[in-house]
Amino acid sequence: PLTLQVKNKAPAEVQITAEQLLREAKERELELLPPPPQQKITDVEELNDYKLRKRKTFEDNIRKNRTVISNWIKYAQWEESLKEIQRARSIYERALDVDYRNVTLWLKYAEMEMKNRQVNHARNIWDRAITTLPRVNQFWYKYTYMEEMLGNVAGSRQVFERWMEWQPEEQAWHSYINFELRYKEVDRARTIYERYILFTLLVIVHPDVKNWIKYARFEEKHSYFAHARKVYERAVEFFGEEHMDEHLYVAFAKFEENQKEFERVRVIYKYALDRIPKQEAQNLFKNYTIFEKKFGDRRGIEDIIVSKRRFQYEEEVKANPHNYDAWFDYLRLVESDADAETVREVYERAIANVPPIQEKRHWKRYIYLWINYALYEELEAKASKRTRQVYQACIELIPHKKFTFAKIWLLYAQFEIRQKNLPLARRALGTSIGKCPKNKLFKGYIELELQLREFDRCRKLYEKFLEFAPENCTSWIKFAELETILGDIDRARAIYELAIGQPRLDMPEVLWKSYIDFEIEQEEYEKTRNLYRRLLQRTQHVKVWISFAQFELSAGREQNLSRCRQIYEEANKAMRNCEEKEERVMLLESWRNFEEEFGNDTTKERIDKLMPEKIKKRRKLQAEDGSDAGWEEYYDYIFPEDTANQPNLKLLAMAKLWKKQQQESEAAEMDPDKDIDESQS
């Protein structure tokens, strides 16, 4: 075979891509083709020839693919356009033999018969269609509409009845009802509604609230108010408490509101709000609030607000049951506007949420639920037996081996005392001290026995208390004060001696002061001096020296001034080696105040010589990492008595003199005219 040889194999100057070729082809598809020439038929033979060719084309298309229903429909419509109804009918029948499930085919077939006023043929086709495909609602709608347009109301009703036997969807029933209402057949429409509701009850085809509401509104629209109320009541009974819907109760309440039955409306709303879950009752709340604002009094509006707040608190505690602040707010609301049983129920729900961790910090808020519960039972409900049960249950719940709450024990004991049951109160406090001793429990028990004037019991309790906490200075002081009040001075002094002999104390300065004040009250001045001397052996604090000196001043004897001055002398000598210079300054200032009031010129001059000189110094600062952090200014004191500091004082004086001379020379250099003027003058 011959092969063509390309002489020039170089690429063309303009390259065309495949994309350009496809786009060009697509654009040319959109170009309008010229219309085919019109064929004019002049005689019968040409017409028959045209029909023959056209029918042959349609038949060929059908033969190629019998399942394409659009070819059958085009064929039948072409025959219909030629008024060949019999041929078109034959084509539709042939098409139905191929696919009788095709809805469009039945519709076109029936529309052709109706268009050509072949009513009986159309009825026959609709009958065949609804018998063959009874679940196609379009057939039923068109059949009933045709009969109604023909004025055959009985026939249309008969078709509807045949349709209802198939238990169709909701819209079919409402179409039947609207059909009867168009012809003022209210009783027939009510019968259809009843059948519809019966299907709902027995067959559960449409268990929907809106169907009942439509039925009731139908009765209300036609002024059958008793029937409408009965429908609503039947709906409420049918749905029960398991499938309650707020829309039903809102519609029922609005119906009663239209009938001016306001008490009924209020009862309906309250009944629904008590039973419907709160998250599903938002619309109900809204409508109830609007109703109360329109027709209710102040109390009714407050009830609505309380109900809304209760709903909010319910949501909060449901989201987090251990949110005890929400429980407190909820309980406060319930206590203000609810009966005792409701309040108890909420309290029981609240205290059931025990903290999951046995740590006291998690129980601090929770325990107040029990306290409030007990106080409510005692003060509001006046139920002493239930109050006792609440306290006992709370005490059993607390893990006393890990921690306890003294407040609970004390409140329980105080409650029993209010009930005039002293043995139970003592037993409770004794149990608390035995199980979990605490300072608060001892103090509360002792205070109780003091109020009852049981001093022997107080002594025993103080002994137990001091065995439990020997470092507690307040307990020692209170015990000694008790003995002092009872007049047993020796016992009080012995208690103080035991106290200051303890190896570890939390506030020893308070204890020593109390002991000294005790001896001063008893006017035992020698013992007081001995106490001060013993205290000074333990500490050289400046306040102790000042207090000792003031004691000697107030001792009430002739030589008190000399004793006081002697104490100040001793203190000054003792504090020469003290690192805290501020304390030594404080002592000297106290001494100076004493001399200004009671001393002479000699003593005043002497104390003035002892007063230190206050100077400003600088020191270097270091950061935590050891780096240089700059300089800091601070005040220091130079005492004349310190011989070691004398050279420093001389050096300081010389430095001050040099600085003064430097300042004078600088001033002279800055203002030479002033020197000339002075020389001329």
Shape: elongated
**Biggest beta sheet summary:** 2 strands, antiparallel
Reported CATH architecture of the domain at 209-296: Alpha Horseshoe
> What class would the helix/strand composition place it in?
mainly alpha
Helix percentage = over 70%
Strand segment tally: 2
Strand order of the largest sheet: 1-2
Strand fraction: under 5%
Mean pLDDT: 80
CATH class of the domain at 209-296: Mainly Alpha
Query: Which stretches are poorly predicted, pLDDT < 50 over at least 5 residues?
Result: 674-681
CATH topology of the domain at 209-296: Serine Threonine Protein Phosphatase 5, Tetratricopeptide repeat
Span between termini: 142 Å
Number of helices: 35
Radius of gyration: 55 Å
Strand-helix topology:
Elements: H1 18-29, H2 44-64, H3 69-81, H4 85-98, H5 103-115, H6 119-132, H7 137-149, H8 153-164, H9 170-182, H10 186-202, H11 209-221, H12 225-239, H13 246-258, H14 262-275, H15 282-295, H16 298-319, H17 324-336, H18 340-351, H19 360-363, H20 367-380, H21 384-397, H22 406-418, H23 422-435, H24 439-451, H25 455-468, H26 473-485, H27 489-500, H28 508-521, H29 525-538, H30 542-553, H31 560-574, H32 581-598, H33 601-610, E1 613-622, E2 628-638, H34 646-670, H35 672-680
Antiparallel strand pairs: 1-2
Helix pairs in contact: 2-3, 3-4, 5-6, 6-7, 7-8, 8-9, 9-10, 11-12, 11-13, 12-13, 13-14, 14-15, 15-16, 16-17, 17-18, 20-21, 21-22, 22-23, 22-24, 24-25, 26-27, 26-28, 27-28, 28-29, 30-31, 30-32, 31-32, 32-33
